[in-house]
Protein 1
Amino acid sequence: MNDVVMQVCWFKDGNEIRKGKKYEIIAKGVQRILLVHKSGFDDEAEYECDAKTSKTSGMLTVVEEEARFTKNLSNVEGTETDSVKLICEVSKPSAEVTWYKEEKELPEGGRYEQIMDGKRRILIIQDLKMQDVGEYNCRLSPSVKTSANLKLNELAAEFISRPQSQEVVEEEKAEFICSVSKETYEVKWFRGDKEIKAGDKYDIVSEGKRRALIVKKCEAKDEGSYVAHIGDVKASADLYVIEKLRIITPIKDAEVKEGSEIMFNCEVNSEGAKAKWLKNDETMFESGKFIMAQRDNVFSLRIKAAQKADVANYSIILTNQRGEQAKSAASAKVAEEKLKFLESIEDVETQEKKTVSFSCKVNRPEVTVRWTKAGQELSLSKRILYRVDGLKHTLTIKDCVMDDEAEYTAMVGDDKCAAELIISEAPTDFTAQLKDQTITEFEDAEFTCKLSKEKAAVKWYRNGREIREGPRYHMERDGKICKLIIKECRPDDECEYACGLDERRSRARLFVEETPVEIVRPPQNVFEPPGSDVVFEVELNKDRVEVKWMRNNMIIVQGDKYQMISEGKIHRLQVCEIRPRDQGEYRIVAKEKDARAKLELAAVELKSPTPICTTAIISFVLKCFTAVPKIKTTDQNLVTDAGKPFVMSVPYDAYPRADAEWFLHGSSLPVQNVDTTTDKTEYRLKSPTKQEQGRYKVVIKNKHGEGEAFINLDVIGKDHGSLKMYNMKRDVVFSDVPGPVKALRVTDTTDGEVSLAWEEPESDGGSKIVAYVVERRDVKRKTWTLATDRADTPEYCVSGLQKDSWYLFRVCARNRVGSGPNVNTEDAVQAKNKFDVPDAPEEVMVSVVNRFGATITWEPPKFDGGSEIVAYIIELRDRTSVKWEAATVCGANDHSATLNDVVENKEYIFRVRAENKAGMGRPSAATKPVKIMDPIERPSPPLNLNFSEQTKAGVSLSWETPTSNGGSMITGYIIQKCDDGSDKWLRCNARLCQDLSYRVCGLKPAQKYLYRVCAENAAGVSDPAEQLGPLLADDPHVAPTLDLSAFRNGLEVIVPQPLTIRVPISGYPTPTAKWTFGDKELTSADERVTMVTKSTFTELVVTPSVRPDQGTYSLTLENDVTAVSGEIDVTVIASPSAPKDMKVAEVTRRHVHLMWEAPEHDGGSPVTHYQIEKREVSRKTWVKLQSQRALGWLYMVTLSANFSWLKLR
């Protein structure tokens, strides 16, 4: 372009091109560039560049490219018998390739499978053999190809399956079978130390990987251990030869006398055989006559009391568990014997009316025994019977009488035997039992029974306690008849009575129907002066009746004020020292009857002087005369019947006499109904009505003050007519008692119970219903029995009934006035279930079984008995037991249940019952025995696969047992590996691994692998555990370390010895060592320097050493983990130079004084001393004198007088 900033647009065949993955548009200075990536034939077109004012275009032509390999083959490694894949990729999906092994084209098919997968070209070689090792190449053309090498690991010589011990029967063949890891491996068989060769006795089979040793016509001498060898690997198995069933001792012919015992014995050579005895080829069965026994390997047949009929041919057939049979036969002969008794009759002692028998045995069947009594032949009858059963003869005498007592003799042939019959008198018994009695109260009851004998003594009992003759109990005896008469029976006499005869009892119950209570003489009104004691007396129609006394409808309690006395039918109430407050109506209640009487105080006239004015009367009068009116009662709560006259009274003390005014609802009441005396005020209601009930207020006042009292009045009962009160007019009708209940019905019956229900009465009588009274009556009795008087709802379940008895029921409502009319049930009902028990449940089966329990399922019974099923009861029993036990109870809607309260590995049988209101039904059919155990399935994968001890050649894998073993024992584990990036898994262990760890060997160094483990049990192989990896086949990398502890105090070297520094090191990969001296790195280029580094040490050697080698040496170790360094101080020591300027300072006859200066250098170590030597001139050797410390350089030598010349150094 001629303009740098000019914009252009690109077009392909007239369509504008946008920048993207396919097209890249570039502006570079004045150049405008369009890049078309990955050109294809569809990119052929005319491309145009438009700069608005100018255009230019050009054609793109795409030339087809030859196919090429985009991904080459990779070397692969496998194991014999496995499969491998060789994979490469080409540039074109349609490209055709040819596979070669070295220069030989590979055929498609057989062990070779060639696959085209898009651009991928795959060669699969199956069932690898060692001859498959070599170079494989894939060719697009003779010149375009890719190659890879196949390496195979030879299978180790080992047994995949080992020979198993064999147990065979004589003359049968035994076959030991094993399989080896490779078809070419040869297996040698040994017995003891001797190799087995194929021949008449043995066959050796080799088919593929299968190897077999066949031992023909096995004998006892062939038993022993057989060993298979593959090189150094051995596998052994034992051979057990079982003898055939043979009879060692056959049965033998026998000849015995009649009545003796015949014995046949047969012995076999092995255990486990079962015997079958035959008589004249007919099967015999064990009985009292024929006794069959086995002891160890000996089988016996005993024929007791041999007779002519026992003459026959006898045989025994023996069969073992393998079906082998052996037979032996013999004959039996019996010599006839004269008739005789084998067992004699024996003496018998019995009682009258009982049955006795005389029994004996003779030595021959089908004979008749003659019987005599006291020497006279016995006549047979219905009472005296003679019976023959084989050899046993029996004489039976029924209902013995005293005349039957005698000696009895049995005779057969010339033999006889005798025995005596002794009869004792029979004890007395009841021939007629006591019967239940039902009477009315105050009537006499009579119990009668009959005895079997007249003279027997009897005793009478009441509830188990003996009764004595007395005013109320009379006992009579008329021959065999015994009577007990109970006079004037009362309800508390109702109980069980028994007649006792020794240890025997005849029992019956007495039922007494109670007479209603009546008040014969009611109490009388009393009108007595204050301070007197008064007595109310009442006479009832019967005694032992509980009564209660009431004053003004309030119950009276026994105390100092009131004395209540009951004497038989007479009941008294004594009121002591009556006062004005004691006035009122007194009432006695005896059950449902009552009677009333009034107590009023008589006026007292005081006349003075008279003898009657005693101190007590004066004291009483003074007490009554109080200034301010004082009410002598608290608030009163009174109840009265409607329509009946009623007086309300308030006692008080006041002086002078007070006036009283009565109020109701705030209004003053008429004075004509008020009666006020000196000690009380009364208000009289002639015919109380509901309008007159309420809270009454009484105001009592005189000139000294006033007092107030309150009375709460409740009116119940009838009101006939109308009443005008306090400007209100109403007509109200109230019932005395509630009306009858409605719709009384029986809602349900069960064993001993009847449920009733009813509706409330239309009228409650003007007072709330406080309860319902329910009564029952047995249809056999006349009186009603109270079931309850406190039923507070219109329903009640009457219990305690006899299951087989019929009952009527009645119900009435009760309020404060009393009980309403009774309503009876129409029909008698029986106190038992009205339903039948259900049928047995159907289709009972065990659906799920595991080691924790079993799940039982069933279907409902066809017939529920007329009542809904309320529950199902599951029962179980141990297979070895006959006792059924209830295991659990399920609801009516449940049709399955899981039972966990069972014992693992035990067998159980189950059944189910249905239950309704009538009870439990029949059980279902029992299930088949079920063993409590987990079902067998494949195990779950092993857990927590982990590795350790990774090296170049191998890695150790470990794992944990699976969560579930599938219900079967884990037999072993399979370990597999896979190259990273490949999907071909290779098995690592030829045999199952029994442990929870395994060492994988034979890894290629620097190769990455994936690992996984599977568990195997009897059901199969589990899914693999979660794979582990990829893991690099390499030793673990460890950071380098160095040990300089030996150079803690530095290193000293004496010239010219070598300077050697050897440092222990560790680390993987082996670290590189770098030595420096000062700032200079030491290298092997220096002739004096030698450096060696091994996995355990690094060494620096400088030889020969010189003084300049002294200093600090640094060592740095480094690998791919980290780097470490350390320093070593080296001291190089040489001899010091000679002392300087030695001179003789003074010479005497005895001494020479020497002097010198320090040497130029000390050799790298401080001079510690100087060595002085001397030599006579005439000699050649120097003699050491004393060493001089280095601090001084002046020394005196002592000389001998004879020395003329001396050299010193």
Note: The helical segments are 615-624.
Protein 2
Amino acid sequence: MAAALGELVLKKLGSLAADQASLLWGLKSEIQRLESTVSSIQAVLLDAEEQSSKSHQVQLWLRGLEEALYDAEDLLDDFSTEVLQRKQMDGNGFVNEVCRFFSPSNQVAYGLKIANQIKAIRSKLDEIDQNRKQFNFQTCPVASQHERQTESTIPEIVVGREEDKQEIISMLLSPSYKEKVAVVPIVGMGGLGKTTLAQLIYNDDKIKSRFDCRSWVCVSETFEPKVLVKSILESMTKKKVEDLPLNVLKDLLHEEINNKLVLLVLDDVWNEDREKWIRFKGLFTSAAAEGSRMVITTRLRIVAEMIATETIVPHELKGLSEPESWSLFEKMAFKGGVASGRRYVELGKEVVMKCRGVPLALRSMGGVLFFKDTESEWETVRDRHLLSLEGDILATTLKLSYDNLPSHLKRCFAYCKLFPKDHEIEVKMLIQLWMAQGYVTKSNQSSVLEEVGMEHFKNLLWRSFFQEVTKDAYGNMKSCKMHDLMHDLAVSIAGEETICLNASNLTNSLLSSGNINLERIRHLSIDFGERSFDELWQVPTLLAKATRLRTFLIINVIYKAKFEGGCEKIFPKMIRLRVLGLRKVTTRILTSTVHELKHLRYLDFSENEMEVLSNEISRLVNLQVFNLRGCVYLSLLPTKIEKLHNLIYLDLDDSSLTGVPAGIGNLSFLRELTKFVVTEAAADGTSPAAGLGELKKLNNLSGELTIKGLEWVKDKSEAETANLNEKSRLRRLQLWWGDARIFKASDDDMARRSDLDWSVLEALQPHSNLKEIRLSFYCGTSIPTRNCWFSSLRNLVQIKLYGCRKLRSLPNLVPFVSLEELELQGLCSLEYVQSETMTPNNDLEFLPSLKCLAITFCRNLVGWSPKNTEDSPLLPRVSTLEITYCPKIVLLPRFRVNFERVELTAVSSDLLSAFGASLISPPRSRFHWLCLESVNELPQRLVAQLTSLKRLRIYHTTLSPSILRQLPSLQEFHIRDCKFLELDDYYYDDCDDDHNNMAPPCVLPSLRCLIVDRDELVTLPKWVQHSSNLQQLEIIRCDELKCLPSWLTKLTALKSLNVRRCGILSGRCRSNTAEDWPIVSHIPNIEVDFIVVQQNGCYLGIDEELHQQQQHQQEEEASSHTLISSSLLQNCFASMTCNLFQRCFLP
């Protein structure tokens, strides 16, 4: 670490020595002398760090050196900051500014002060340099380190494990287990590839086709049922789940997996508490269908034996065979993945033999040797390290991987100790943190810091220091994790100067016990996880003692925390801080003391409740990252924000800004500005707020940009000053006009506004590299097409048009071959999506990449084009279709039956007929999820396509009972306020047992979950008794249903009964003395009005005297979180949206 720090100090010294400021203040000679001393020490640091593992005295010497180098860096940063601040005082150059604003006496005084401080540090370093002679360190030449130029996608290299994979897959697919949910443990030492094997299984095509849904959860050391249930839900729904009580989370989980075949992978389990395991398993198995499976990976044999199903032996993972080991090493160590040169092969096989078949060790050693170009370098690795390996081969090998990193990558890796094990690290944030600490530097003036940082990340990824990388839709690296052993290595390397505290050790007793030396801490993170933020009151006290802190981060925040008054206590103590991250920490007023943090480069106040930002923030001239995302109470930025001329990232998304300060366009290094707001005063020139012209010079903007307040732009020429077509790095653009005009403007005003909006939009033509565009409340009647405005955006993958109520036509969509999502909402004047001339012949595929089509609240839309459905073009890949509140639509394009989800709400019978006619069945058709609301009869042609349907939800709908007999694959049936449950006459007239001696037909043979939510239901229909596979039954709001039928006892597969808000019926099922208990007692899991009556076949009993009180408490708790089940939430949101849009867009 000292070598990396020395390298950083030398770079700063070289930069300052060349600056005219050092000459002006008479500091150049002192800086050069200090540079000479540091260079002398730097030459022996590689050898000193190697010897430190064997000598305590060397460790103490290095510790003293690091302290002195830190002080030197702080002083040099002080000086460069002073230079920046004085440069800002005049725009005519530094020398002129100093002469005008500072007297000669002040210049001399400051120069003497800095000179004396440099002399003091040099004196300390000279003493350290003298002391090093006792150790006889050798000068080690720095090996040339060339960074690998990798592609944006890192290839996954997996060797072997095919036999293991097939063995476990056969276990998962086997129907011969007695248990409802069989558990298959994979056990083995760290680094063997348990996670990789589980991933191969999880993504196998046989597994995907067998199981209805899959979930992957990384457990690690925290095995709490509530946390696990929440993680499973997030894995399945791909959405963030609020922190809810366990019983509510359980309901959500049961709704999600109810009667489905589920594969659950729990990766890296350490829990040895059998009671916790049993409790969690019960929560999962009570709802999942029989035949569901769990795969567990663990290092501990005792855990594998504890959780294994009785008839399953844990799968013990071994090391790779010798040929497999060589194959993996060869791919990692040699250019092109193929060995070359006899001597290299000999040396490589010696290395492979020492790695003993451990994939992580093979990857790490291959990554080390990949960057060694000569035989002598390979021999050095072998002779100095591998031939003397003792003890833990894996830990020693990983340490060797670290030792062979370039010094700048060593610091980047050690810094990751700030994140807890199994933490999902945001790659973008990690690179920004590295930048703030000075670990990322430009190699030349044309370099871009974040691109250099990404190369650092890719190099560490290639060497296997990171894993499990996720990417966004465009292939950009989004998040990653560290293997547990790599995390252990980072902890040992970083030492006591980097600390990650969690909820279990954030206590005054621990901090005062001497286990943590607060005065030596440089980097501190606090992981609150599921912990209450009441603990946060300790933070100011903690930081007051950590006076040398450079990083303070709060991570894994769930509950927002009060931090009032804390700023005044801690800011004066944190003068060396480079990183301050207080995401979701409530601080309503950021006080004026913040300007004292002059070294600050990273400031994160996202999702904060602050209302005011001090103007003193503009004095933070080193600031690079300023994150205000989600600050919903913040309306204004500091007026002098232009002084933050080093600012690179300014995230304002989801904030309530009413404007942007003038001068923001002078931030020449700015590469990310997520939100820009035009105000009426700015447009009139009566306010210092920024107009669109401020965007003109910001051509390096990348990522996303939202421009709001476009209704205030007075003409086309003003819009042209934004210069959007020069911003080639933008990927997502959102343009917003004020929605208030919809309700306030007269027809004449709207006509004028329509012409103006059209010209403004034409002037805002973006670069052709754009991937996503969204227009909101645009009032033009068409979208500009001159100069290929729209057709030039051929790389678009997403188009969203919201509330554009005057829009009468859309541009030709034929050129958009990459378009994946098209969403039209509230387009009240649109009659056809495409004109007849724009639409290709019906034998051609149209929009070949389109996957999602959503058309909602388009009250005058007649269809896709004037062509009849049978003559319309084919959309071959649409898998998600939503049509909501479009009463006139009857003409559709054609679709292949390849749907994951179809949602039709308040549409006409003509549309349903057209939809049925539009369907083309490929050889392997798929139609998994259909949601119908407020619709009438389904046409037979559509019904015929539903043979593969697995989930059906119908609300406020009247359908023919005959439909049910044509749904052989249906597994989940959710009915709300529908009138076709009384199917008994239809099915039993011709199937009377006494007359025909034949059994009634099984209406829904695959049904596993039935949810009935209807006020008027008097009795459960008889056809339910023949659904022999039914496992979950929910009855909600059925006040007229007085009792359950006796034939319910015949449903032996039934595992769960939930009765909720059913008046008399609830009382008849509430306890083992209630009237209907003999009918339901065979059901293992029974819940009545949020009270668990029976669990896993064990009657829990209920105290009738306390029942009312408990019920009231449960309902209040659920209500406080606004969510009882995802279906109820969706329905509520849909109703609210419906009411709003009906008022806005319907007659």
Note: Residues 754 and 780 are 4 Å apart (CA to CA).
Protein 3
Amino acid sequence: MASPVGEDNWVDFVDHQLRGATDLENRVKVIETFRRAVQAEPGSLKVWMAYCEYFWSLYSDCQPGSDAGWPLDEQHLGRETFTLDHALNLWQEGYEAVQYRLSDSHQLWNRWVSLEMELLARTATEAGVRRITHLYKNRLAVPHAAWDNTSQMFSSFLSEYNRANYESEMLHVTANARDAKRLYEMRDPWEMKLNQAQKAGDIAGIKAIMTEYIDWEIRQAKSKKDHHTLTNMRICLGLFSRALTGIMSSDEATWLNFLVFVSTWHSDVKMGRVKIPSVILPNMLDVLQRAVHHVPWSGTVWARYILAAEEAGLGFTDIERIKHAATSCAQLDRDGMGGVLEMYSAWCGYLKRTAMNPNATEEAVDLAEVGLPSALEDVRHWGKRRYGDAYQGDPNFRLEKILIQFLTEKKDDIDEARNVWEQLSGIPLHANSYDFWLAWFLWEMLVFASTKSKNRSPTPATVAQGLRVPSFATRVFIKALKVRTLDWPERIMDVYLQHCNDYELAETLREAQDTIYKTRKGVARRREREAAQAQAQAQAAYAAQAQTQAQAQAQHQPQQHQQQQQYQQQQSQDHPMTDAPQAGTSPGSKRKREDGPVDEADDGAKRAKSETIMGAAELKRDRENTSVFVRNLPEGITQTKLRQFFREYGHINNIDLQKSEGAPAVALIEFRSPEDARTALLRDGKSLGESVIQVSPATDCTLFVTNYPPEADEQYIRDLFKHCGDIHSIRFPSLKYNTKRRFCYVSFRDRSFAAAATQLDGKTLEGGKFKLQAKFSDPGHRQVRQGAQAEERELHVNNLPRAASEEDVEGLFQKAGKVVSVRLTRNMGGVSTGTAFVVMETKEEAAKAIEILDKVIFGNHPLKVEVSKPPTRKTTATSRADGEAEGSPESSASGSGPSHVSGPEIAARTIAILGIPDTMNDARVRSIVAPIGAINKLVLHPQHGGAVVEFADAATAGKASLVINSTEIEGGKKLRVGSVGQLFKEKAEKRIDRIDLPHQQPQKKQDNSKASKKGKTAAELMPPPPPIRRPPVLGKAGAKRGLGFVVPVSKAQKEQNAAAAATKEGSSSEKQVNGNGPSSSAVGPAAPAPPVAQKSNADFKRMFLEGKK
């Protein structure tokens, strides 16, 4: 009968056996079963509790005076078998097995210590008090969730049995328990998360939190900062026990994580890198035996079991027994032939290593000679039985490689090894793979190199010209190029030609060139056919999409007619794709600069040319047609490993690797050209690590999405398309050079998901205010903008009277046609700036308004009327109170006069928010700030990675500083609060979404004596100039004087100098003109000049008026 698996199954199994245990013999059998159960689940609290409770009940039942009803002879034997010492030792053994289960180990310990207390209450002895005191001290030194409760129990115990030493014992325990409390406090957040998930019944959440918790514990156990290495390791083992005896008992990834953890610690202890007793670590073979029982379908675990048995020095019979247990398991091929191949690879590797050992016996060699072909035959039959004729073997031909190595190196049977290669070449799975042919070629070259000095060579020698050539290696290429379905013939041809250049004779080289020339022509025609087929499939997909959209529009046309009219009316006022120009500026004239650093405008001017170049470069970067999806990636995959795996197939621009809990990682790899992307598809079905990856094109998987609400973030977009399929990534544009951009690219993991998402194209959002656009991304297509400004219906009116209202302007322009809207721009005081934007109903009416109203006198002001033009660039975004584009809250609401606000008052209620990503627009920033209080003005500065926010009062600004600081936003980034000056010193984060471009690192200062002179200019190589000595100014010590320095003057001296200047102004100026003043004297030392006072604005005004006279 097979043993149970899992703590629940063991408890049920023992409980069933226990119900039939009515005599002493059967009770002993139950104890033996319990012993097997704790060996199978050594960290199970449930099994240990049941075991200890049952043994204690047997001890109690066999005591004199018990009412259990045992016969006298069984009572006598039972007292000899189930003794008190055995029972207490069992409780201690169970506690030691589960003591580092932080969350629930107190259940067993509390029960144990309660029994100890009962015994002490019956016979209170000094030894008993010392024993329980020792138990409490040890328990309080171990981190656990119920530490406070345990401490309270110890306090009560001391109060009753050791009151004299109460204070000293408690002080001693508290001092020793500091580390235990600190270690648990570090883990308390994880325990709280697990408790919340358990209360909510969220199974997936529990697994995800437990996985993250385990990874964190592994890092703590390996940390060199914490000196509690042994305790951290034990806590990690306790957490693994909780996971592997609980909800994750059948999780293969967790078991592999545990195996690697234990194996690594064994290696560290063996090599002396960690100083802990090796007996503390679980035995590797015991752990693997438990693992194969819980996840019998894992070929990787079975392979590790065989390898660990070989490392432990077990004999052939024992290892063969493990192999037979694996093949007898009905679940080994549950996930396909991968597990079977993993296990057989470990088995064949063991046979090969045993036979190739220099001290190997004849029996070991015979076992390998028989066992290797037998294993190949077993796998072939297994695959045929499961998949029929569709099974073609292992894509990586691992078992065949082991057999070839054995035949080549141990048996020296080259012909038989070559026969294995020949058999593999007859299978389409291998014949179509260039990897197979290159592996065969390399083997032939190794054989050629190793047999040069031998008399007999498997490669025939060519007598002509005295050369020996590797003819068998050349024949491999000739045979490979005859396969019409070879996945990468270009690579084979390149290596073939290079090989013939290096080793072959002239005649063979010429024949190779002829063969390659003819083959290249055939490959070119094949590539053209493949491209035509791909284009036809794409066109069919586009046609199907257009037909589906047309049908959907026809069904919803009556309902959308009314919404369309409302949408057109709202577009004239607030079109989502055409934001209003900045307040107080004219699209045709220079714009008013925002409050900021002086060099911001210069930076923009310098960017004008670079932006054009960047735009052209982005058009060349066709992500949609140069990317591929790579699925089923192995655990622990990195970008570096992916680059190495695909580096032979083309230049990689970027890799977007997405990892999720409980699922294999998926990568989106962008190549330089579509040709490179198509070549990378040849890796489909290849093995990477322990997984067979899937490579598929990412064409038609990305959507261009726009016209969504301005406040929408990544989560909003995901929720919008969540029913369509898995989303790989969402890419928002940078707003550094244009803050009006509001669109994103949504990449789905399958073309069908993206096609389903296009059904939302035209969907109205927020009651018809926005009409969503979701179309397949096409980098060559430029969207035609809509709205009043794009349709030339919006007019820009300059030089209006300041007193003119919206009604006055509307009445004036009604002479030319119907006016849709009028918007006056106002300053912070609510006063009109004399500029307005007028939207007419048609383009013709706008042209008529220009014709009859341009240069017309209106309120003694000649008007300037012109078509409103979009700004060339907009590096900042401004929004006013309540989301308005213009006016202060007071002027916009009530139309009252200007409100005079001082500069310090505005500064007191203004803060700067730092750390804002350049993909976050002003509406999203406003949604974070608005709940705090009323906002007067918000200016977004993407180039500096922040925003300036003016609140209604200083109190709200102070509250916002506290709330916003350290607020976490998308991507785990945190906002900071600073001053406006600090903001303009910041630079936005540089995002480089290409791994082929180096990140610019700040240059480190080097010592000139150590710096290399290579590449320095002549000026840099010249010696430094000698120091210049300057004499003291004015020949006097003290404060510096002369040009550029002002002497401090007291208030009394200022008044005296001003009076003297007023009386002597005429004479002194005349003397200076004639050259007779003191300043013109060149003889003798100059008299000390009297201190000159700084002139005030009143002095300059008086001088200016006197000069006019």
Note: The mean pLDDT is 81.
